[in-house]
Amino acid sequence: MDRLEGYGIDPELEGDRAARPTVSLRPAGGGAPIVVAFTTFPGLMVRAGHWYTLGFPGCGCDACDETAETEAQGLEQLVGTLVSGHFRESMRNVRGGDAWQEQETRAPSDRAPMQGARDLPPGSRVSPEIAQARVAAAGGNEFDWKPWRRRGESATGGTE
Fold first, then answer.
1. What is the dihedral of CA 117, 30, 54, 10, to 10 degrees?
2. What angle do CA 54, 34, 87 make, to 5 degrees?
3. Quick check: 153 and 130 in contact, CB under 8 A?
């Protein structure tokens, strides 16, 4: 696993609100990377895979009634989904008109949504220019992320 820590790792997440260095974890073996930016607000900005971003807390207003406990549970569930390989994302209709950035959690044996998984939004509209740039930077438009390897585990699943 590659671990980076510093400012400027993900300027889109950090914006001008970085409160401390951003942390990026990139697992070996085809697992989804995760980037956590520590910001003045909302507190944490997280990138899962190449394109999915989420803030913790998601809003911060009094009406939303978010608590540190529920936000911690949401972050833990997102990380659990990534490390277990139950996450996929895609960029659709990249060549003409607006594109759609999509992500989903799924059961390990099929592409059906997982029971009890954190609800992910069905997709986000993206301009063609942004979609093309993101697909080019990622090296593809669809990613079915694998589970993260455990320490000492080889690419074939045995111990090293």
1. 170
2. 75
3. no
Contacts 24+ apart (CB under 8 A), 16-23: 17/41
pLDDT in tens, the chain (160 residues): 999 999 999 999 999 999 999 999 999 999 999 999 999 988 999 999 999 999 999 887 878 888 899 999 999 999 999 999 999 999 987 666 788 888 888 655 554 544 434 445 557 888 888 888 999 999 999 999 999 998 777 766 665 5
> CB of 134 within 8 A of CB of 50?
yes
Q: How far apart are CA 145 and CA 103, in angstroms?
A: 11
- Strands, sheet with 87-92, edge to edge from the N-terminal-most edge strand: 124-126, 99-105, 87-92, 142-144
Report residue 87 CA to chain centroid gap.
9
Closest CA to 81 of 55, 54, 53, 116: 116
Contact call for residues 42 and 34 (beta carbons, < 8 A): no
Cα-Cα-Cα-Cα torsion 71, 73, 79, 85, nearest 10 degrees, comes to -130
Q: Is 11 left (phi over 0), alpha (psi -120 to 50) or beta?
A: alpha
